[in-house]
Amino acid sequence: MSHEHVPQSSTVFTPPELAAAMVAAVRGKPNALWLDPCVGDGVFVAQMAARGIDAAQISAIDIAPGPGALDKAALTVRGVDFLEWAAGHRAAVDHVVMNPPYVALSRVQGKLLDRALDVRLSDGQHLPFKANYWAAFLLTAIECVREGGSLVAVLPAAWDFAKYATRVRQTVERAFGEVLVVRCASPLFPKVQEGVVIVVAFDRGAQSCTNRRVEVPGLVETIAALERIARGKEPPGTSTVRAFAPPPLALHRLDEIVHIHIGAVTGDAGYFLLNERERKEWRLPRSALRPTLSRSKHLAGAAIGRKEWAELRDQGGRVWMFWPRRSALRHAAVRAYLKHGKEGGCNLAAHKITKRDPWHRTPLPGRVDGFMSGMSKRLPFLALREMPGLTASNTLYVIRFKKRVTQAEKATLGVLLLTSSVRAELARHARVYADGLLKFEPSELGSVRVPVVRARDDAARVLRDATVLLLAGREAEASAMADDWVVSSGSLALKTRASSTKRCVA
Ligand SMILES: C[S@@+](CC[C@H](N)C(=O)[O-])C[C@H]1O[C@@H](n2cnc3c(N)ncnc32)[C@H](O)[C@@H]1O
Protein backbone atom coordinates (compact mmCIF):
# COMPACT_ATOMS: atom_id res chain seq x y z
CA MET A 1 0.00 0.00 0.00
CA SER A 2 0.83 3.55 -0.51
CA HIS A 3 0.62 4.57 3.14
CA GLU A 4 -0.72 3.18 6.39
CA HIS A 5 -3.14 6.13 6.64
CA VAL A 6 -4.60 6.01 3.08
CA PRO A 7 -6.52 2.89 2.03
CA GLN A 8 -5.11 0.98 -0.95
CA SER A 9 -8.57 1.06 -2.57
CA SER A 10 -8.03 4.77 -3.27
CA THR A 11 -5.48 3.92 -5.92
CA VAL A 12 -6.66 3.38 -9.49
CA PHE A 13 -4.48 3.73 -12.54
CA THR A 14 -5.09 5.94 -15.54
CA PRO A 15 -5.09 4.17 -18.95
CA PRO A 16 -2.04 5.44 -20.92
CA GLU A 17 -4.11 6.64 -23.90
CA LEU A 18 -6.29 8.75 -21.56
CA ALA A 19 -3.13 10.04 -19.81
CA ALA A 20 -1.72 11.10 -23.21
CA ALA A 21 -4.88 13.04 -24.07
CA MET A 22 -4.97 14.69 -20.61
CA VAL A 23 -1.34 15.83 -20.89
CA ALA A 24 -2.06 17.23 -24.36
CA ALA A 25 -5.19 19.03 -23.12
CA VAL A 26 -3.10 21.10 -20.69
CA ARG A 27 -1.79 23.09 -23.67
CA GLY A 28 1.66 23.25 -22.08
CA LYS A 29 3.78 26.31 -22.60
CA PRO A 30 7.45 25.96 -23.58
CA ASN A 31 9.77 25.79 -20.57
CA ALA A 32 6.77 25.49 -18.26
CA LEU A 33 6.96 23.66 -14.93
CA TRP A 34 4.68 20.65 -14.52
CA LEU A 35 3.34 18.76 -11.51
CA ASP A 36 1.79 15.35 -10.93
CA PRO A 37 0.95 15.43 -7.20
CA CYS A 38 0.18 11.69 -6.92
CA VAL A 39 2.36 10.10 -9.54
CA GLY A 40 1.85 6.39 -8.81
CA ASP A 41 3.59 4.44 -11.58
CA GLY A 42 4.17 7.63 -13.55
CA VAL A 43 1.64 7.28 -16.35
CA PHE A 44 1.43 11.09 -16.79
CA VAL A 45 5.19 11.57 -16.41
CA ALA A 46 5.70 9.06 -19.24
CA GLN A 47 3.48 11.18 -21.49
CA MET A 48 5.22 14.40 -20.48
CA ALA A 49 8.58 12.80 -21.23
CA ALA A 50 7.20 11.59 -24.59
CA ARG A 51 6.41 15.23 -25.40
CA GLY A 52 10.03 16.15 -24.75
CA ILE A 53 9.51 17.77 -21.38
CA ASP A 54 12.72 17.65 -19.42
CA ALA A 55 12.86 15.81 -16.08
CA ALA A 56 13.93 19.09 -14.41
CA GLN A 57 10.62 20.68 -15.45
CA ILE A 58 8.42 18.02 -13.85
CA SER A 59 7.72 17.57 -10.14
CA ALA A 60 6.21 14.22 -9.24
CA ILE A 61 5.07 13.40 -5.72
CA ASP A 62 3.70 10.26 -4.12
CA ILE A 63 3.25 9.10 -0.60
CA ALA A 64 4.13 5.54 -1.58
CA PRO A 65 7.83 4.97 -0.99
CA GLY A 66 8.57 3.54 -4.45
CA PRO A 67 10.86 3.59 -6.34
CA GLY A 68 9.06 3.67 -9.67
CA ALA A 69 10.40 2.85 -13.12
CA LEU A 70 9.85 6.42 -14.33
CA ASP A 71 11.18 8.25 -11.28
CA LYS A 72 14.20 9.56 -13.20
CA ALA A 73 11.98 11.17 -15.85
CA ALA A 74 10.91 13.78 -13.26
CA LEU A 75 12.01 15.39 -10.03
CA THR A 76 10.32 12.61 -8.11
CA VAL A 77 9.72 12.88 -4.38
CA ARG A 78 8.32 9.75 -2.76
CA GLY A 79 7.23 9.03 0.78
CA VAL A 80 5.78 12.54 1.12
CA ASP A 81 2.23 13.76 1.62
CA PHE A 82 1.43 16.05 -1.31
CA LEU A 83 -0.59 18.34 0.96
CA GLU A 84 2.53 18.88 3.06
CA TRP A 85 4.77 19.35 -0.01
CA ALA A 86 2.33 21.89 -1.46
CA ALA A 87 2.67 24.20 1.55
CA GLY A 88 6.17 25.05 0.33
CA HIS A 89 5.25 25.19 -3.36
CA ARG A 90 2.43 27.71 -3.70
CA ALA A 91 2.20 29.21 -7.22
CA ALA A 92 5.26 27.17 -8.17
CA VAL A 93 4.16 25.37 -11.35
CA ASP A 94 2.41 26.18 -14.62
CA HIS A 95 0.55 22.93 -15.26
CA VAL A 96 -0.90 20.15 -13.13
CA VAL A 97 -2.09 16.79 -14.44
CA MET A 98 -3.53 14.42 -11.88
CA ASN A 99 -5.58 11.43 -10.91
CA PRO A 100 -6.01 11.98 -7.18
CA PRO A 101 -6.82 9.27 -4.64
CA TYR A 102 -10.53 8.57 -4.23
CA VAL A 103 -11.37 7.81 -0.62
CA ALA A 104 -13.76 9.26 1.94
CA LEU A 105 -11.94 11.52 4.40
CA SER A 106 -13.47 9.44 7.19
CA ARG A 107 -11.10 6.65 6.06
CA VAL A 108 -7.97 8.82 5.97
CA GLN A 109 -6.07 9.09 9.24
CA GLY A 110 -3.43 10.90 11.22
CA LYS A 111 -1.56 13.93 9.90
CA LEU A 112 -2.87 13.24 6.40
CA LEU A 113 -6.42 13.76 7.63
CA ASP A 114 -5.46 16.85 9.63
CA ARG A 115 -3.92 18.42 6.53
CA ALA A 116 -6.92 17.54 4.37
CA LEU A 117 -9.31 19.11 6.89
CA ASP A 118 -7.14 22.22 6.90
CA VAL A 119 -7.74 22.80 3.18
CA ARG A 120 -10.01 25.77 2.49
CA LEU A 121 -12.69 26.40 -0.10
CA SER A 122 -12.95 29.76 -1.87
CA ASP A 123 -15.56 30.92 0.67
CA GLY A 124 -12.90 30.57 3.36
CA GLN A 125 -14.52 27.52 4.98
CA HIS A 126 -12.57 24.34 5.64
CA LEU A 127 -13.25 21.21 3.64
CA PRO A 128 -15.88 19.23 5.59
CA PHE A 129 -15.19 15.82 7.10
CA LYS A 130 -17.91 14.45 4.78
CA ALA A 131 -15.78 15.29 1.76
CA ASN A 132 -13.49 13.00 -0.19
CA TYR A 133 -9.69 13.02 -0.42
CA TRP A 134 -9.78 13.92 -4.14
CA ALA A 135 -11.29 17.29 -3.24
CA ALA A 136 -8.44 18.07 -0.82
CA PHE A 137 -5.96 17.16 -3.58
CA LEU A 138 -7.71 19.26 -6.20
CA LEU A 139 -7.99 22.38 -4.03
CA THR A 140 -4.40 22.05 -2.90
CA ALA A 141 -3.16 21.50 -6.47
CA ILE A 142 -4.90 24.72 -7.56
CA GLU A 143 -2.81 26.61 -5.02
CA CYS A 144 0.35 25.28 -6.67
CA VAL A 145 -0.59 26.70 -10.09
CA ARG A 146 0.84 30.05 -11.10
CA GLU A 147 -1.18 32.82 -12.67
CA GLY A 148 -2.15 31.95 -16.23
CA GLY A 149 -1.48 28.24 -15.64
CA SER A 150 -3.73 25.23 -16.24
CA LEU A 151 -4.84 22.01 -14.57
CA VAL A 152 -6.32 18.74 -15.85
CA ALA A 153 -7.72 16.18 -13.42
CA VAL A 154 -9.62 12.95 -13.78
CA LEU A 155 -12.16 12.86 -10.96
CA PRO A 156 -14.99 10.65 -9.78
CA ALA A 157 -18.55 11.40 -10.92
CA ALA A 158 -19.10 12.67 -7.35
CA TRP A 159 -17.80 15.96 -8.82
CA ASP A 160 -21.31 16.32 -10.28
CA PHE A 161 -23.56 14.97 -7.57
CA ALA A 162 -21.91 14.93 -4.13
CA LYS A 163 -23.20 17.59 -1.78
CA TYR A 164 -19.70 18.60 -0.69
CA ALA A 165 -18.69 18.98 -4.35
CA THR A 166 -20.81 22.09 -5.01
CA ARG A 167 -18.38 24.39 -3.22
CA VAL A 168 -15.42 22.51 -4.68
CA ARG A 169 -16.75 23.27 -8.19
CA GLN A 170 -17.25 26.92 -7.22
CA THR A 171 -13.69 27.07 -5.93
CA VAL A 172 -12.35 25.73 -9.24
CA GLU A 173 -14.49 28.21 -11.19
CA ARG A 174 -13.23 31.09 -9.06
CA ALA A 175 -9.63 30.04 -9.55
CA PHE A 176 -9.61 29.79 -13.36
CA GLY A 177 -10.87 31.75 -16.36
CA GLU A 178 -12.14 28.74 -18.26
CA VAL A 179 -13.35 25.38 -16.98
CA LEU A 180 -14.34 22.53 -19.33
CA VAL A 181 -15.85 19.40 -17.89
CA VAL A 182 -15.86 16.22 -19.97
CA ARG A 183 -18.34 13.80 -18.37
CA CYS A 184 -17.82 10.19 -19.39
CA ALA A 185 -20.88 8.02 -18.70
CA SER A 186 -19.11 4.66 -18.51
CA PRO A 187 -16.62 3.56 -15.85
CA LEU A 188 -12.96 3.94 -16.85
CA PHE A 189 -11.40 2.20 -13.87
CA PRO A 190 -11.89 -1.48 -13.06
CA LYS A 191 -12.61 -0.92 -9.33
CA VAL A 192 -15.00 2.01 -9.87
CA GLN A 193 -18.62 1.46 -10.90
CA GLU A 194 -19.50 4.99 -11.96
CA GLY A 195 -18.29 7.14 -14.80
CA VAL A 196 -15.74 9.90 -14.38
CA VAL A 197 -15.26 13.54 -15.18
CA ILE A 198 -12.18 15.14 -16.63
CA VAL A 199 -11.88 18.71 -15.46
CA VAL A 200 -9.79 20.92 -17.72
CA ALA A 201 -9.13 24.39 -16.29
CA PHE A 202 -7.22 27.20 -17.98
CA ASP A 203 -6.05 30.67 -17.06
CA ARG A 204 -5.42 30.53 -13.35
CA GLY A 205 -6.16 33.81 -11.60
CA ALA A 206 -8.58 35.20 -14.20
CA GLN A 207 -11.31 37.41 -12.81
CA SER A 208 -14.28 35.71 -14.47
CA CYS A 209 -14.98 32.18 -15.56
CA THR A 210 -16.66 30.49 -18.50
CA ASN A 211 -17.83 27.02 -17.61
CA ARG A 212 -18.49 24.50 -20.40
CA ARG A 213 -19.52 20.89 -20.36
CA VAL A 214 -19.71 17.97 -22.73
CA GLU A 215 -21.22 14.53 -22.07
CA VAL A 216 -19.68 11.52 -23.80
CA PRO A 217 -20.44 7.78 -23.62
CA GLY A 218 -17.01 6.21 -23.20
CA LEU A 219 -13.23 6.28 -23.22
CA VAL A 220 -12.81 6.77 -26.98
CA GLU A 221 -15.08 9.81 -27.02
CA THR A 222 -13.46 11.19 -23.86
CA ILE A 223 -10.07 11.03 -25.55
CA ALA A 224 -11.47 12.61 -28.74
CA ALA A 225 -12.96 15.47 -26.68
CA LEU A 226 -9.65 16.07 -24.89
CA GLU A 227 -7.77 16.03 -28.19
CA ARG A 228 -10.04 18.77 -29.52
CA ILE A 229 -9.51 20.80 -26.35
CA ALA A 230 -5.76 20.33 -26.83
CA ARG A 231 -6.12 21.98 -30.27
CA GLY A 232 -8.06 24.89 -28.78
CA LYS A 233 -11.38 23.68 -30.22
CA GLU A 234 -14.67 22.84 -28.56
CA PRO A 235 -15.67 19.16 -28.58
CA PRO A 236 -18.94 18.62 -30.50
CA GLY A 237 -21.98 18.84 -28.23
CA THR A 238 -20.34 21.24 -25.78
CA SER A 239 -22.73 23.52 -23.96
CA THR A 240 -21.92 26.61 -21.96
CA VAL A 241 -23.21 25.95 -18.47
CA ARG A 242 -22.80 29.53 -17.40
CA ALA A 243 -20.49 32.39 -17.93
CA PHE A 244 -19.76 33.65 -14.47
CA ALA A 245 -19.77 37.26 -13.60
CA PRO A 246 -16.53 38.16 -11.97
CA PRO A 247 -16.52 36.60 -8.53
CA PRO A 248 -16.62 38.86 -5.51
CA LEU A 249 -13.15 40.22 -5.24
CA ALA A 250 -10.86 38.54 -2.77
CA LEU A 251 -9.04 40.81 -0.38
CA HIS A 252 -5.57 40.15 0.97
CA ARG A 253 -3.90 41.77 3.92
CA LEU A 254 -0.93 43.80 2.77
CA ASP A 255 1.36 41.78 5.05
CA GLU A 256 0.34 38.60 3.24
CA ILE A 257 1.92 40.09 0.11
CA VAL A 258 4.91 42.05 1.41
CA HIS A 259 7.20 42.32 4.41
CA ILE A 260 7.18 45.81 5.89
CA HIS A 261 10.24 46.71 7.95
CA ILE A 262 11.74 49.79 9.41
CA GLY A 263 14.73 51.14 7.42
CA ALA A 264 18.33 51.00 8.64
CA VAL A 265 18.84 52.23 12.21
CA THR A 266 22.16 54.10 12.20
CA GLY A 267 22.04 55.08 15.89
CA ASP A 268 23.26 58.61 15.07
CA ALA A 269 21.73 60.09 11.93
CA GLY A 270 23.79 63.28 12.35
CA TYR A 271 27.01 61.33 11.84
CA PHE A 272 25.98 58.55 9.51
CA LEU A 273 23.73 60.44 7.07
CA LEU A 274 25.43 62.98 4.85
CA ASN A 275 24.54 65.23 2.00
CA GLU A 276 26.72 65.69 -1.06
CA ARG A 277 28.37 68.86 0.27
CA GLU A 278 29.43 67.04 3.47
CA ARG A 279 30.62 64.05 1.46
CA LYS A 280 32.79 66.33 -0.66
CA GLU A 281 34.14 68.22 2.35
CA TRP A 282 35.28 64.96 3.88
CA ARG A 283 36.39 63.66 0.44
CA LEU A 284 34.68 60.37 1.18
CA PRO A 285 34.87 57.86 -1.68
CA ARG A 286 31.80 56.11 -3.09
CA SER A 287 32.99 52.80 -1.57
CA ALA A 288 32.44 54.28 1.91
CA LEU A 289 28.83 55.28 1.29
CA ARG A 290 25.45 53.79 0.50
CA PRO A 291 22.83 55.74 -1.44
CA THR A 292 20.00 56.16 1.03
CA LEU A 293 16.58 57.75 1.35
CA SER A 294 16.22 59.39 4.74
CA ARG A 295 13.09 61.58 4.63
CA SER A 296 9.48 60.99 3.65
CA LYS A 297 9.85 63.81 1.12
CA HIS A 298 12.54 61.74 -0.61
CA LEU A 299 9.68 59.59 -1.87
CA ALA A 300 9.28 62.02 -4.73
CA GLY A 301 7.58 59.70 -7.23
CA ALA A 302 6.26 56.24 -7.99
CA ALA A 303 9.75 54.91 -8.60
CA ILE A 304 13.13 56.03 -7.31
CA GLY A 305 15.83 55.30 -9.84
CA ARG A 306 19.31 56.77 -10.34
CA LYS A 307 17.91 59.95 -11.89
CA GLU A 308 15.45 60.66 -9.08
CA TRP A 309 18.07 59.89 -6.44
CA ALA A 310 20.61 62.17 -8.15
CA GLU A 311 18.04 65.00 -8.10
CA LEU A 312 17.59 64.54 -4.35
CA ARG A 313 21.39 64.57 -3.96
CA ASP A 314 21.73 67.73 -6.03
CA GLN A 315 18.98 69.41 -3.99
CA GLY A 316 21.10 68.91 -0.86
CA GLY A 317 19.21 65.93 0.59
CA ARG A 318 20.98 63.65 3.05
CA VAL A 319 21.06 60.74 0.67
CA TRP A 320 24.37 59.12 1.65
CA MET A 321 24.88 56.73 4.52
CA PHE A 322 28.42 56.33 5.83
CA TRP A 323 28.95 52.59 5.47
CA PRO A 324 32.58 51.88 4.62
CA ARG A 325 33.24 48.59 2.90
CA ARG A 326 36.23 46.67 4.21
CA SER A 327 38.29 47.79 1.21
CA ALA A 328 37.48 51.44 1.96
CA LEU A 329 38.90 51.31 5.49
CA ARG A 330 42.43 51.92 4.16
CA HIS A 331 41.35 55.14 2.49
CA ALA A 332 42.79 58.21 4.27
CA ALA A 333 39.49 60.14 4.10
CA VAL A 334 37.58 57.22 5.56
CA ARG A 335 40.10 56.87 8.38
CA ALA A 336 39.76 60.59 9.06
CA TYR A 337 35.95 60.35 9.21
CA LEU A 338 36.12 57.34 11.54
CA LYS A 339 38.56 59.25 13.76
CA HIS A 340 36.17 62.20 13.77
CA GLY A 341 33.40 59.79 14.85
CA LYS A 342 35.49 58.39 17.71
CA GLU A 343 36.49 61.87 18.87
CA GLY A 344 32.95 63.02 19.50
CA GLY A 345 31.49 63.31 15.99
CA CYS A 346 29.38 60.21 16.62
CA ASN A 347 27.42 59.23 19.69
CA LEU A 348 29.25 55.95 20.27
CA ALA A 349 27.32 55.42 23.51
CA ALA A 350 24.03 55.08 21.62
CA HIS A 351 22.52 51.68 22.32
CA LYS A 352 22.27 50.68 18.64
CA ILE A 353 25.94 51.53 18.13
CA THR A 354 27.38 49.85 21.23
CA LYS A 355 25.55 46.67 20.25
CA ARG A 356 27.30 46.22 16.91
CA ASP A 357 30.75 45.30 15.75
CA PRO A 358 32.30 47.21 14.10
CA TRP A 359 30.48 50.23 15.47
CA HIS A 360 30.29 51.90 12.05
CA ARG A 361 28.58 48.98 10.23
CA THR A 362 24.86 49.83 10.33
CA PRO A 363 22.80 46.66 9.66
CA LEU A 364 21.02 47.15 6.35
CA PRO A 365 17.65 45.79 5.34
CA GLY A 366 18.00 42.84 2.93
CA ARG A 367 16.41 42.90 -0.52
CA VAL A 368 14.34 46.05 -0.95
CA ASP A 369 11.56 46.36 -3.53
CA GLY A 370 10.12 49.67 -2.44
CA PHE A 371 9.70 52.28 0.24
CA MET A 372 6.80 53.73 2.20
CA SER A 373 6.60 56.45 4.74
CA GLY A 374 5.10 55.68 8.12
CA MET A 375 5.03 59.34 9.16
CA SER A 376 3.93 62.04 6.77
CA LYS A 377 1.16 64.56 6.19
CA ARG A 378 -0.25 62.33 3.48
CA LEU A 379 -1.38 58.73 3.62
CA PRO A 380 1.30 56.18 2.71
CA PHE A 381 1.94 55.13 -0.86
CA LEU A 382 4.44 52.81 -2.50
CA ALA A 383 7.58 54.19 -4.16
CA LEU A 384 9.34 51.39 -5.99
CA ARG A 385 13.09 51.00 -5.84
CA GLU A 386 14.63 51.17 -9.29
CA MET A 387 18.19 52.02 -8.26
CA PRO A 388 20.29 48.99 -7.29
CA GLY A 389 21.79 49.29 -3.82
CA LEU A 390 19.46 52.09 -2.74
CA THR A 391 18.41 51.69 0.89
CA ALA A 392 16.54 53.73 3.48
CA SER A 393 17.12 54.92 7.01
CA ASN A 394 14.64 54.33 9.80
CA THR A 395 12.44 57.33 9.06
CA LEU A 396 11.06 55.19 6.22
CA TYR A 397 9.74 51.68 5.87
CA VAL A 398 11.26 49.27 3.38
CA ILE A 399 8.99 46.91 1.51
CA ARG A 400 9.93 43.46 0.28
CA PHE A 401 7.61 41.20 -1.70
CA LYS A 402 7.23 37.77 -0.15
CA LYS A 403 7.39 36.10 -3.56
CA ARG A 404 9.59 37.02 -6.50
CA VAL A 405 7.32 39.21 -8.61
CA THR A 406 7.53 41.08 -11.90
CA GLN A 407 7.81 44.86 -12.23
CA ALA A 408 4.18 44.91 -13.41
CA GLU A 409 3.09 43.07 -10.25
CA LYS A 410 5.02 45.49 -8.06
CA ALA A 411 3.44 48.45 -9.83
CA THR A 412 0.01 46.81 -9.54
CA LEU A 413 0.35 46.77 -5.76
CA GLY A 414 1.32 50.45 -5.91
CA VAL A 415 -1.86 51.24 -7.86
CA LEU A 416 -4.01 49.17 -5.48
CA LEU A 417 -2.66 51.15 -2.53
CA LEU A 418 -3.97 54.29 -4.21
CA THR A 419 -7.53 52.98 -4.72
CA SER A 420 -10.27 54.71 -2.78
CA SER A 421 -11.13 51.64 -0.71
CA VAL A 422 -7.53 51.21 0.46
CA ARG A 423 -7.13 54.97 1.13
CA ALA A 424 -10.30 54.88 3.24
CA GLU A 425 -8.96 51.95 5.20
CA LEU A 426 -5.57 53.63 5.67
CA ALA A 427 -7.30 56.78 6.90
CA ARG A 428 -9.11 54.69 9.47
CA HIS A 429 -5.81 53.27 10.79
CA ALA A 430 -3.90 56.58 10.91
CA ARG A 431 -2.89 58.08 14.22
CA VAL A 432 -3.09 61.82 13.73
CA TYR A 433 -0.52 63.91 15.58
CA ALA A 434 -1.07 67.52 16.63
CA ASP A 435 0.93 68.93 13.71
CA GLY A 436 -1.21 66.96 11.23
CA LEU A 437 1.32 64.17 10.78
CA LEU A 438 -0.21 60.76 10.12
CA LYS A 439 1.61 57.92 11.81
CA PHE A 440 1.46 54.21 11.00
CA GLU A 441 3.22 51.27 12.60
CA PRO A 442 4.29 48.49 10.19
CA SER A 443 1.64 46.22 11.74
CA GLU A 444 -1.07 48.80 11.02
CA LEU A 445 0.04 49.11 7.42
CA GLY A 446 0.22 45.33 7.15
CA SER A 447 -3.36 44.86 8.24
CA VAL A 448 -4.76 47.00 5.43
CA ARG A 449 -6.66 44.88 2.92
CA VAL A 450 -5.98 45.23 -0.78
CA PRO A 451 -8.08 43.70 -3.54
CA VAL A 452 -6.56 40.83 -5.50
CA VAL A 453 -6.42 41.76 -9.16
CA ARG A 454 -4.39 40.60 -12.09
CA ALA A 455 -1.20 42.52 -12.88
CA ARG A 456 -1.10 44.42 -16.17
CA ASP A 457 1.80 45.90 -18.06
CA ASP A 458 0.31 49.40 -17.97
CA ALA A 459 0.32 49.40 -14.15
CA ALA A 460 3.69 51.22 -14.04
CA ARG A 461 2.35 54.09 -16.17
CA VAL A 462 -0.83 54.38 -14.10
CA LEU A 463 1.15 54.26 -10.88
CA ARG A 464 3.47 57.01 -12.13
CA ASP A 465 0.61 59.30 -13.24
CA ALA A 466 -1.53 58.71 -10.16
CA THR A 467 1.45 59.31 -7.86
CA VAL A 468 2.16 62.64 -9.61
CA LEU A 469 -1.44 63.65 -8.81
CA LEU A 470 -1.11 62.44 -5.23
CA LEU A 471 2.11 64.39 -4.64
CA ALA A 472 0.48 67.49 -6.13
CA GLY A 473 -2.17 67.22 -3.41
CA ARG A 474 -4.83 65.90 -5.81
CA GLU A 475 -5.46 62.73 -3.81
CA ALA A 476 -9.08 62.24 -4.94
CA GLU A 477 -8.03 62.36 -8.60
CA ALA A 478 -5.19 59.92 -7.91
CA SER A 479 -7.64 57.49 -6.31
CA ALA A 480 -10.14 57.90 -9.15
CA MET A 481 -7.40 57.03 -11.64
CA ALA A 482 -6.41 53.95 -9.62
CA ASP A 483 -10.08 52.87 -9.23
CA ASP A 484 -10.68 53.25 -12.97
CA TRP A 485 -7.63 51.17 -13.78
CA VAL A 486 -8.72 48.37 -11.45
CA VAL A 487 -12.26 48.39 -12.84
CA SER A 488 -10.97 48.37 -16.42
CA SER A 489 -8.84 45.35 -15.61
CA GLY A 490 -12.08 43.44 -15.73
CA SER A 491 -13.53 43.71 -12.28
CA LEU A 492 -16.75 45.59 -11.82
CA ALA A 493 -17.00 43.67 -8.58
CA LEU A 494 -14.20 45.81 -7.25
CA LYS A 495 -16.29 48.92 -7.61
CA THR A 496 -19.03 47.33 -5.59
CA ARG A 497 -16.55 46.07 -3.07
CA ALA A 498 -14.69 49.37 -2.96
CA SER A 499 -17.81 51.40 -2.43
CA SER A 500 -19.17 49.04 0.20
CA THR A 501 -15.83 49.17 2.02
CA LYS A 502 -16.06 52.91 1.83
CA ARG A 503 -19.52 52.85 3.27
CA CYS A 504 -18.52 50.76 6.19
CA VAL A 505 -15.50 52.91 7.06
CA ALA A 506 -17.38 56.19 6.68
C1 LIG B 1 -5.48 7.28 -8.18
S1 LIG B 1 -3.77 6.90 -7.96
C2 LIG B 1 -3.08 7.64 -9.38
C3 LIG B 1 -1.77 7.08 -9.78
C4 LIG B 1 -1.28 7.59 -11.14
N1 LIG B 1 -1.07 9.01 -11.14
C5 LIG B 1 -2.25 7.22 -12.22
O1 LIG B 1 -2.95 8.06 -12.68
O2 LIG B 1 -2.26 6.07 -12.64
C6 LIG B 1 -3.43 7.95 -6.64
C7 LIG B 1 -1.99 7.96 -6.12
O3 LIG B 1 -1.97 8.88 -5.04
C8 LIG B 1 -1.03 8.45 -4.09
N2 LIG B 1 -1.36 9.12 -2.83
C9 LIG B 1 -2.33 8.84 -1.94
N3 LIG B 1 -2.30 9.72 -0.92
C10 LIG B 1 -1.30 10.57 -1.18
C11 LIG B 1 -0.77 11.71 -0.50
N4 LIG B 1 -1.29 12.13 0.64
N5 LIG B 1 0.27 12.37 -1.07
C12 LIG B 1 0.81 11.95 -2.24
N6 LIG B 1 0.36 10.87 -2.92
C13 LIG B 1 -0.68 10.20 -2.39
C14 LIG B 1 -1.19 6.95 -4.07
O4 LIG B 1 -0.03 6.32 -3.56
C15 LIG B 1 -1.42 6.67 -5.57
O5 LIG B 1 -0.20 6.39 -6.21
Question: How is the topology of this model organized?
Answer:
Layout: H1 16-25, E1 34-36, H2 43-50, E2 58-62, E3 75-78, H3 82-87, E4 93-98, H4 110-118, H5 133-144, E5 145-156, H6 158-161, H7 165-175, E6 176-184, E7 196-204, E8 210-216, H8 219-230, E9 239-243, E10 251-253, H9 254-257, E11 258-262, H10 269-272, E12 273-274, H11 276-282, E13 289-293, E14 303-304, H12 306-314, E15 320-322, H13 332-345, H14 351-354, E16 370-373, E17 375-376, E18 383-385, E19 391-392, E20 396-401, H15 407-418, H16 420-429, E21 431-432, E22 438-439, H17 442-446, E23 449-451, H18 459-471, H19 475-488, H20 492-505
Parallel strand pairs: 1-2, 1-4, 2-3, 4-5, 6-8, 13-19, 14-18
Antiparallel strand pairs: 5-7, 6-7, 8-9, 10-23, 11-20, 12-15, 13-15, 16-18, 16-20, 17-22, 21-22
The protein binds S-adenosylmethionine (SAM).
S-adenosylmethionine binds at residues 2, 6, 11-14, 36, 38-41, 43-44, 61-64, 81-83, 99, 101, 112.
